[in-house]
Specification:
This protein is mainly α and 190 residues long. It contains ten helices and no strands. One of its GO terms (molecular function) is DNA binding.
Length: 190
């Protein structure tokens, strides 16, 4: 055990001169500026309690190691979410997967809109989009089944999905989005 007077002298002579660089180190490695001074005091406290058992040989290495370890421990503690907080969130927010009548009605409307958009696609484009996106076939599988090239399948899938997106977001199939030049879009889809 180190004498209090010796410890105080050691701290004032060896540790306090490191304050500016130690503060800069903490500031660089901690995201909340308002907590830097408190963290510095925590590091000093840990340095003193460790040095009370025996003065370290290499002071700056010891001080920075204590600071580093303290920042790591503090960051780990802040990542832990308390059970009380989680319980409170359950009371405040309804479950995201809860099937309310409004969500069911909205989902049905969206599904009807998608079905109508698919029905409005040109027949060949509709067939390819259905095979790729609904049946889950790969471009190669669709290509083999329809006897067309993989590039043609990809091109028709892309055109169909763009036209479908346009339809779902308020237009008609082939109309194009605002500023897209709808005539060009109609030519590309068909």
């Amino acid at each position: 055990m180190v004498d209090d007077g010796v410890l105080r002298d050691w701290f004032c002579k060896e540790v306090l001169p490191l304050e500016r660089s130690l503060t800069a180190f903490i500031r660089r490695n901690w995201r909340v500026e308002a907590e830097v001074v408190d963290l510095l005091q925590d590091v000093y406290e840990r340095v003193l309690s460790g040095a009370a058992r025996g003065l370290p040989g290499h002071v700056s290495g010891y001080v920075y190691e204590v600071a580093r370890n303290h920042l790591i421990s503090r960051a780990r503690r802040e990542q832990v979410v308390s059970f009380d907080l989680v319980a409170d969130l359950d009371d405040i927010m309804p479950a995201a997967d809860e099937l309310t009548p409004e969500r069911i009605a909205t989902a049905r409307q969206e599904l009807r809109r998608v079905e109508a958009g698919i029905e409005a696609l040109p027949p060949r484009c509709r067939q390819i989009v259905e095979m790729r996106k609904i049946d889950g076939l790969s471009s190669k599988e669709v290509s083999a089944e329809l006897g067309i090239g993989v590039d043609a399948v990809n091109q028709q899938t892309s055109k169909g999905m763009r036209a479908l997106a346009d339809f779902i977001f308020g237009g008609r199939v082939g109309e194009g989005r605002e500023g897209d030049g709808g005539d060009a879009r109609r030519r590309r889809v068909q």
